[in-house]
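for the record, two folds in this file. i put them one after another cuz i was lazy. first one right below, seq on top, structure tokens after. the second one comes after a little note so u can tell where it starts
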Amino acid sequence: MDLLRFSTAGSVDDGKSTLIGRLLFDSKGVFEDQLEAAERSTVNRSAGPIDLSLLTDGLRAEREQGITIDVAYRYFATPKRKFIIADTPGHEQYTRNMATGASTADLAIILIDARYGALVQSRRHTIIASLLKIPHVVIAVNKMDLVDFSQTRFLEIQRDFQPFLDQMAFTSVQWIPLSALSGDNVVTRGAVSPWYSGPSLLEHLETVETRKIDVREAFRFPVQYVIRPNLDFRGFAGLLAAGTLKVGDEVMALPAGTRSKVKQIHTHDADLPQVSAPRCVTVLLEDEIDVSRGDMLVHPQRVPWVKRDFDAQLVWMDATPLDVSRPYLIKHTTRTVRVRIAQLLYRIDTNTLEHVPAETQQLNEISRVRISAAQALYLDSYHDNRQTGSFILIDPLTNATVAAGMVVADQPLDDHTVSSLSRIDRAAREAHNGHRAQAIMLACASPEARADFAYALETRLFHRGAQVLVLNGESVRGNLQLLAATIRLLLSAGMVAILDMPLEKRAERDELRRNLAVDDVVELLVETTDADAPGEFQRPILPDCTVSLRKGGLDAATVQAVTWLADRGLFGQHRVMGPGAGI
């Protein structure tokens, strides 16, 4: 039998614990002593001899208040399938607990009270379930007995909430009207809703498609511990996070990039010829390569992203708001490194799904951020791999977990991404092209004069045999990292990039230079015939080269620039001139 992990979600008092209790009770998944304990603890007898919510709400505070505070896991099985249930709290202050319980689920049950419809917390939990890439969702409209199982009310809730669901990335959505208290449509279909022809909740849980192991999935093995009991045994222990591994497979160790082959796959019970994720094993290699905790074994042809800067969705879990000026620790697989929040890109409005500008992030809010780590991490998108695509943020002072994060798929380019696009390195391309790769950043008071000069310089360099391209754009402010990554991509191809960009502020140009190697970019000041610099233009203090359109016009200025570039070593003579060495 296969296994289905599912979680409950929804707003306060929607009946999540009662539903799970009913599901366990009617499917004969509760032991007699558990029933007796729940019966003894039942205070309110109006709903029957047993308060079914007590089968999951085990904490004293939960039983006293009648609410769910922490995640409760329950296990049961039917002849068709095994189940692990995560009953999660609905209160807003416990949203972080809901995210924890749903992080390993294959299906989420979103409960909605038939009297009130979808509330704010229902929407927030649905968004989190979507961010966690839970493929299947059941919208359980509970307490239908309180609205006389009205088909009109059920369709009204469905009509209001379905447009919101359509914006999510769920594989399947199943709507079920039910009553957790009476058991209608929970395990068996009730006669009180003849208008509903779909499955009961348990029937759907037994038949929904679960995630199958894909043997083609990229192999990921974060090393947790090196086991060396004697001189003849050196194994690397950890959780096989993705893919399949068998004896004889070639693997590569990150970050060193050294390769070896699997000699033995050791477990507590016996050695195995092959294992598939998720499985805790000890891997022995044929060669004595340097591998330690925090490293990762991967397939040489299917490596993860090796990144220091990446984008992620964050669910903030701490009462203290996010502070972008202070450092945090990131715990990713078996690595813990220092990070900072380089940029808070936006906050997600849980009512409208709009991207709202924000300077900080409060408890339970969801945002997208750009993270900069002190050391490279070995990442996959959360969509492709939950293990290597997820992480937590830790406050280094209190050691408290402040946020849970999911790596997003559309990552900005970085040096590793650029270098992995081709097996022909930059030096070989420069030798083939007959010139150095170079970025030329133009500083000019007039946008029109800057554009004219950029294209004239491109033409003159092209006729000199250079592989050259003009980059232009009016929307680079706030996206200088992406611009720098694009420039690095062109440089890796051995090209000359001329930047016809609206970088009027001196600080913008300086920041761009900091994102590039020192010798890869030069700043060229183009002086115009205008007496006054319009707009926000700030003249460079020490440009690498200065050319003037005042004497000789455009042709003379481009000749000056090409002469300076050639003298600097663009076409093979590497004699670098210092700042301010204009013509």
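(here's the note) second protein begins now
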Amino acid sequence: MKKAKKESFIQGVLALMFSQVIIKILGLIYSMYLTNREGFGDSGNAIYMGGYQIYALLLTLSSIGVPNAISKLISERLARGDKKGADRVFKIAFMTFAVIGFVGTLILFLGARVIANYWLAIPECEYTLISLSPAIFFVSISSVIRGYFNGIQKISNTARSQTLEQVFKTTLTILFVEIVAMITTTNTTLMAAGANLATTFATFLSFSYIFALCQRNRKADRKEIINSEYIGEKESVKSIVSKILSVSIPMSISSLLSSINKNIDSATVVRILKPLVGEVSAKARYGILSSKIDILTSMPLAFNIAFATALVPAISTARVQGDEKTINKRLSFSILVTILIGLPCTIGMFMYANQILALLFPKASKGGTLLAISAFTIIFTVLAQTINGALQGLGKVKIPAIALGCGVIVKLLTNVLLIPIEGIYENGAAIGSVLCHIISFTIVYNVLKNTVKLEFSIFRLMIKPMIATLVMAIVSYACYMLAISLGIHGSISTIIGIGVAVVIYAILVIILKILSKEDILSLPKGEKIYKILQKMKIYA
């Protein structure tokens, strides 16, 4: 593989984190556009997201576990100096998942009508499913290439391709929906299909970019790989495919169960609520849950997924080399930052649920209670996400799937029991999601604790972040209420409250010295940052 200097762990994390933040912001932009667009709204979101969740389910089967699996297998071979073996893994994986992706595309295309009518109970989803079907093939092979780049620790290439895909998706979604709206005089069903067709075009364009990047990178390495020798015996195609699937399937099952978790809502909410509140209201309620609530509660994952992704090759490499110190160092830093991200986001979204919806979706602002309940999924989801990355790197690839499987069973039972109850209705689905992620986190944390000797300071890891979050919440809400009392209403008062929360929390993280000297020095420009904090007499 390429002789150029590899990215450091934190460089890879920051590149992917920046990419994911941009992706989530762009996703929020087109979600705001669709929800506030006349003729689309919550009902359009039900059709759009109903089809998209089925696509995500098939995508999980064909590709979701692939980047981490390929990353793990390639990084392990490179750690042993087996460059030729790593290259062989990539080639065989590419062909394998091209076939799997093509099969996934055929299933979605040919089964669109049956899925829309019998699984979703939303017949209008048929066209959205058909328009999405080619995307499965392109994403499947793109996932192999992203795994290759992650494995050689060039995560920034993965980050750029994902960002580019979302830029195309946002732009084309707005363009296609407007074109369909003009042609059909705002036909909601066809507008939703147009929005999902934009996803297919975006995945094709992103694939074209990362494929060209991969070819250029591999061309530079080709001579070195040809002249190198296998470390150990040359593995057969059957053996490599078996290893790829033995790693990617458990990883995919975890993602599959996450997708099933969302599909539980698509299969139960409309179906259960239809006889209770009517078809139109049932679809609108599901549209709120699957679109606005889902995208807002998944925003913090944009910051955190970088750690889960970067931990797999980093811990896999350290494990092969027997470097326990690096494993513990990466883990402690990643879990600390995950808590620093997840805790304030959870409390902030709970406090300002109604205000956030009114700010972002002024023409369709319902769902405050749903968002307030769903906010509690954030902290447990982000923690489980980071721990899952660590467990996968440690070879415990089945544990995240088992943990989430237990959570999904509870989620299904909760939906079935609570949604029919008057006064609870769709809020039962949100409660089910919270319970699901609490159970999943509890299981993976206990397995990690029994696998690795965690060198954590509970005071620094838990108590200090909780103090910072509590003070942030009190000061922020006080400023928000002060703004209201001064006659500053609506969006301005919400922005003031949230803005104060961000500033106060950042100051408290510094004052309470939640990040250690080593944590700060590991950041880009860390030495300069530390010197400034020394001059301010915060750090010695």
